[in-house]
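Slide 14.
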Amino acid sequence: MLTRNGALTCLAALLALTPIPCAARTPTPSFTITGSNVTMPSSGTATFPFTLTSVNGFAGNISVMPAQPAVPAGVRLPYLEIPGPVHAFVLTANGTTTGTFGILAAIPVPVPVRWNLPPRPDLGERAIWSLAGALLLGVGLRKKRALATHLLLAAGMLVGLTAISACGGQPTLTPGTYTYTLTATEVNNTSATANTTVTVTVPPGIVTNN
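Slide 15: predicted structure.
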């Protein structure tokens, strides 16, 4: 008769002779994104590079979008050259791809359209001269002298205001280190994302216009 201990011994022997295979686990394909920190140069233009890396054979199209940090009011920080739309990159299985985003200290000033037309006085300038001519024609010699005095005083005030405004100097970025976020998303599966952060260090004296 098989005792309890004997049964356990037989069971242990059977398990030793017939191993039970574990179910094979297939790694989930994914991707990562990494970036490099930068310091803003005196030129006010810089780029921070980033790298996308395939993990476990992932292959697909990846979109990357940067985001500026939230800062208190009055803080002047570098702004993204392209805050949107998104950049898209092709990532091959177990491969890498690189890209860059630009950051600028000053907002580009649009260049006005110039038409090839004969030069003409500005409307405001013509109005001023018309008004001055009418006043000169409508008053006598004494009033002309008084008007000339007033015009000289006004010109002096204008020159003074211009000099005062020039003394203020150009605005500069707020010195410090700012953290920008890069978000990578699979184009055909927006739930697959990866994030990284990069820092931009701003030294004193970087001129801006914002």
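Speaker note: The CA atoms of residues 124 and 130 lie 10 Å apart.
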